[in-house]
Write a structure and sequence with these properties.
Distance between the termini: 5 Å
Radius of gyration: 12 Å
Strand order of the largest sheet: 1-4
Amino acid sequence: MRLWSAAMSDNTIYSKTHKGVEEISHRTHHLASRLRNTLIVIDGHTPWDELQKRLMVDDTANAMIQTLLAEGYIESIDDEPPTVIEI
């Protein structure tokens, strides 16, 4: 299993990938509702700490971001790309 390790600092900015845009537009990949709601608020401009406030979610928010990263729905637009961790 692969996990993406992004430096989830409060100022990390995430953007939808082509796959993420497809999911929002056409529900192509049938994401679970909480993952889809998280994907919807990712705009490529707002830092992660602000998105967490909008989502008002518990500590599963970081797990949702990790899932969206690992499955290719979002990417970090910060200078340092996420690293892959083999488990």
